[in-house]
Design brief:
By secondary structure, the chain is α/β, with parallel strands linked by helices. The protein is built from 6 helices and 7 strands; from the N terminus they run βαβαβαβαββααβ. The chain has one domain: 3-Layer(aba) Sandwich (Rossmann fold).
């Protein structure tokens, strides 16, 4: 899809955001031989339901990214408290700059800059600061996007969608959320596929695309 082997970095404000936004694409890229890295900035321990261990999302993101095919050493976990990213903006930017130096990625997947969740918006804004010399695509999270420009689409196979669903099924602590439902996940992939004349797809907003 991206030609020669590339380094791809997925920025997830919270564990599971990357799977929801571009899980099918991650599966596709790994199958094509690209190196995919996944950086999550919060395991949301303050908002985990009381029947689960507070660190359950750390266990779940490890399992979910393994399903997608991400190497364990390519999963980077930070420990920011949920809903405090705005107060930690500079520290987050510093961490992003370190990731840039360590990974030197070619393509970044991150939330949409108009995402209404304050943590998502911070990652999008600071992500662009850190990776302004990379190609950047924003993934959609419809429950948080008031508007979303579908300026790019990535074809997905049934296998890619099935892998995305399987990965998200690892998040049992999030199963109560309506957007965790398999029918919804498949419906979104089908909707985006219909828009480009294929069966399944994921849509992205192009922030910056660099052709070398």
């Amino acid at each position: 899809m991206f030609g020669s082997k590339k380094k791809i970095l997925v920025l997830a404000p919270h564990t599971d955001d990357g799977e929801f936004g571009c899980g099918g694409t991650i599966s596709k890229l790994i199958n094509e031989g690209h190196d995919v890295y996944y950086a999550a900035f919060s395991a949301c321990q303050q908002s985990v339901l009381p029947q689960f261990p507070s660190d359950i999302l750390i266990t779940e993101v490890k399992a979910a990214t393994k399903v997608l095919g991400i190497k364990p050493e390519n999963l980077i976990l930070f420990d920011y408290d949920v809903r405090t990213f705005g107060y930690n903006r500079q520290a987050i930017l510093d961490d992003l700059i370190k990731l840039r130096a360590e990974i030197n990625p070619d393509v970044i997947f991150m939330p949409e800059k108009n995402d209404v969740h304050q943590d998502h918006k911070t990652i999008a804004e600071e992500g662009l600061r850190a990776f302004k010399f990379c190609s950047v695509l924003s993934y959609e999270l419809p429950w948080n996007n008031i508007t979303f420009t579908t300026s790019s689409f990535i074809h997905l196979s049934e296998e890619n969608v099935r892998t995305k669903v399987k990965a998200l099924n690892e998040y049992q602590s999030q199963a109560h959320r309506p957007y965790s439902d398999e029918d919804f996940i498949r419906s979104m992939a089908r909707l985006r596929g219909v828009q480009i004349g294929t069966t399944y797809a994921e849509a992205f907003s192009v922030v910056r695309w660099i052709i070398k």
